[in-house]
Design brief:
single chain, alpha/beta, Rossmann fold, 6-stranded mixed beta sheet, 4 helices, 6 strands, 17% strand, His_PPase_superfam, phosphatase activity, Phosphoglycerate mutase, His_Pase_superF_clade-1, PGM_Phosphatase
Length: 218
């Protein structure tokens, strides 16, 4: 049974000392710890047997995911070359981009954080339905479109997709429960983690989901 596995990797920690909700804004890069986290995940992936059959690497076009992708390829490509395989180049796809959010550019958290202002409370009354921006259903739909195209273009292969917490979890939740709506506080998509989703190439049926957090100790 031909099957394609897409390894969704979340970007590493971002340098954000002012606690700004950066969303899709430019200029937000990985912190030193974030780079170390991705390096740990890159070593994990480079040593995985299936990575020898890696056919493509896709990425969200934002700064932090581009940097994450570059670090991953710094580890994966030399391993490929040692086995006589060609190095891979990243393919940027906006369907993997961070969720749209009405709080973009604002400070979040306690004190003067935007979440706690009375005028914004109406936006966060139900954490399962993000009235503050792009809905989970919209997010899961675009990621699902991406997945279907990848399975069609890369049958019986391994593929990397570097993205963000909300797109990865919303799509995973849809596959596991039949609906993408969820409580954002209960997600299990750590920074630099790997969520591997395997699908039957002929039917699109879900065959399995695996999760790893190689950077947990960083």
């Amino acid at each position: 049974m031909p099957a394609t596995t897409i390894h969704f990797v979340r970007h590493g920690q971002v340098d954000n000392p002012d606690h700004i909700l950066y969303e899709r804004l430019p200029g937000f890069h990985l912190s030193d710890r974030g780079r170390a986290m991705v390096e740990a995940t890159a070593r994990f992936l480079a040593e995985a047997p299936g990575m020898r059959n890696l056919e493509a690497v896709y990425s969200s076009p934002l700064d932090r995911t581009r940097e994450t992708t570059d670090i991953l390829l710094e580890q994966i490509n030399p391993a490929r070359v040692r086995h006589g395989l060609k190095p891979l180049e990243p393919i940027y796809d906006r369907r993997l981009i961070e969720a749209g959010n009405e709080f973009r550019g604002k400070r979040i958290g306690h004190g003067q954080g935007a979440f706690w202002r009375p005028s914004n409370l109406r936006l966060i009354l139900d954490l399962r339905r993000p009235s503050w921006g792009e809905s989970y259903r919209q997010i899961a739909r675009r990621v699902g479109d991406f997945v279907r195209q990848v399975v069609h273009n890369h049958p019986d292969a391994q593929v990397l997709a570097v993205s963000h917490e909300s797109p990865i979890w919303s799509y995973r939740h849809l596959l596991e429960t039949g609906h993408p709506e969820h409580n954002m506080l209960l997600r299990a998509t750590a920074l630099a983690s790997v969520t591997s989703i395997t699908l039957d190439c002929e039917t699109g049926k879900l065959l399995g989901i695996a999760y790893a957090d190689p950077a947990a100790g960083v």
